[in-house]
TrEMBL record:
It is found in: Cytoplasm. This is tRNA (guanine-N(1)-)-methyltransferase. Belongs to the RNA methyltransferase TrmD family. It is an enzyme of class 2 (transferase). HAMAP family: TrmD. Specifically methylates guanosine-37 in various tRNAs. Its main location: cytoplasm. Homodimer. It catalyses: guanosine(37) in tRNA + S-adenosyl-L-methionine = N(1)-methylguanosine(37) in tRNA + S-adenosyl-L-homocysteine + H(+). Residues 1-224 form the tRNA methyltransferase TRMD/TRM10-type domain.
Amino acid sequence: MEFTVLTIFPEMFPPFWENGIIRRAIEQGIISASAINIRDFTTDRHRTTDDRPYGGGCGMVMKPEPLADAIRTARANAPSSKTVLMTPQGRPFNQRVAEELSLVEGLIFVCGRYEGVDERICRHFIDDEISIGDYVLTGGELASMIIMDAVTRLRPGALGGEESAARDSFSENVLEHAHYTRPRNFEGDEVPDVLLSGNHREIEKWRLETSLIRTFLKRPDLLRERPLSPHEINILKNWCSDIETIIQTRSLPDADPPSGGQ
Ligand code: 4GX
């Protein structure tokens, strides 16, 4: 997949492309990435990319001509790409949109600065408008990086080895279970016994329980979008009855003793 970014700040991108999974994906040919400076498509002495808004008011608007020429150049280099404008008015970005975008051959990101881009660019040159959230950035550059990041890790081979994008938080509208690594006792806080039991059925059961319960507590909106299996409903019911026991006896019920293993 080919990423092309149109920006007046191309220097922001190499530091992002030169690290971690993104860097490895580029080295392996899973993605390629380049930035085009919109200023290179200006024709005036001052290389102007913005102008005052028709109708008056504060703030500046990105001029259409340099942007249009930058988009044409990007499309000539990557003809089957989709051109995406980063804007708070776009459709909200989430894992579903990331999965959808990960299927196209190329993405051209138009990163606006100032108050926005001339409406005729949106009308004639943009295939999709995406927002990364309901807050206002100073430009679309960071928003495009977030999309490149989330999309890259979905491309086959990008997460080497046993890592899998299929099992992440959100891919099934449920948050991930808690993770622990050594030491077993960290500043007095112990790793749950079940994880040291070696009983893989019990460990899977514990992980599903903690996933469901933390989704229920932290992000109930996600559970509403997800059908619960009878087994999962049972897990939540047992959790409710544990809480009732706590309320009635004013003490915690016994944890399941770890079976097998050490
Ligand atoms: N998710 N911004 C874009 C300038 C702008 C405004 C309108 C085109 C149309 C943002 C976001 C975001 C700030 C990037 C305004 N360009 N982008 N910029 N939230 O806040 O994506």
